[in-house]
């Protein structure tokens, strides 16, 4: 069955995207609810307002840094793929969307 499937077909790409987003959602949920919530609900944290503000700022700084890293990694992958597979400088629709490579 694997030999007959096309990994670049629209259905395969949509399925992969849905499964990736579900696993990312589970990871974010586990991080926020099980790991970070335990740190933010401690008595030391609830008694010290300055520590709360610092902790939230650092949490958002870390989340923003990870987002920038993801954007940078995506741009790097796209530029590497376009250089390898499309040496004339055109990034085809096969990488950016679901169009057929011409």
List the helices and strands and how they pair.
Elements lengths: L9 H31 L2 H5 L1 H37 L7 H4 L6
Kindly describe this structure.
This protein has helices at residues 10-40, 43-47, 49-85, 93-96. It has a domain at 10-74. Helix content is 75%, strand content 0%. The protein is built from four helices and no strands. The longest helix has 37 residues, at 49-85. Keywords: Membrane, Transmembrane, Transmembrane helix. It is found in: Membrane. The chain crosses the membrane at residues 53-73.
Please name the defining characteristics of this protein:
Putative zinc/iron permease; 4 helices; ZIP; transmembrane; single chain; transmembrane helix; 75% helix; elongated; 102 residues; disordered C terminus; mainly alpha
Short synopsis of the structure:
The chain has 102 residues and is an all-alpha fold. It has 4 helices and no strands.
Structural shape: elongated
Poorly predicted parts: 98-102
Oligomer: single chain
| Helical coverage, percent range | over 70%
Indicate the radius of gyration in whole angstroms. Answer: 21 Å
Task: Let me know the average pLDDT.
Answer: 77
Distance between the termini: 27 Å
Tell me the strand percentage band.
under 5%
Main sheet: strands, sense, barrel: none
Number of helices, counting only DSSP H or I runs of 4 residues or more: 4
Total strand segments: 0
Q: What is the succession of H and E elements? A: HHHH
SS content category: mainly alpha
């Amino acid at each position: 069955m694997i030999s007959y499937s096309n990994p670049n077909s629209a259905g395969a790409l949509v399925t992969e995207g849905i499964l990736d987003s579900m696993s990312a959602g589970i990871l974010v949920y586990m991080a926020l609810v099980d790991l970070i919530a335990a740190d933010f609900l401690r008595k030391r944290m609830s008694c010290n307002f300055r520590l709360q503000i610092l902790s939230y700022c650092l949490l958002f700084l870390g989340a923003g840094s990870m987002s920038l890293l993801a954007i940078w990694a995506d741009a790097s992958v796209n530029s590497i793929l376009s250089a390898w597979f499309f040496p004339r400088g055109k990034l085809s629709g096969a990488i950016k969307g679901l169009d057929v490579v011409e």
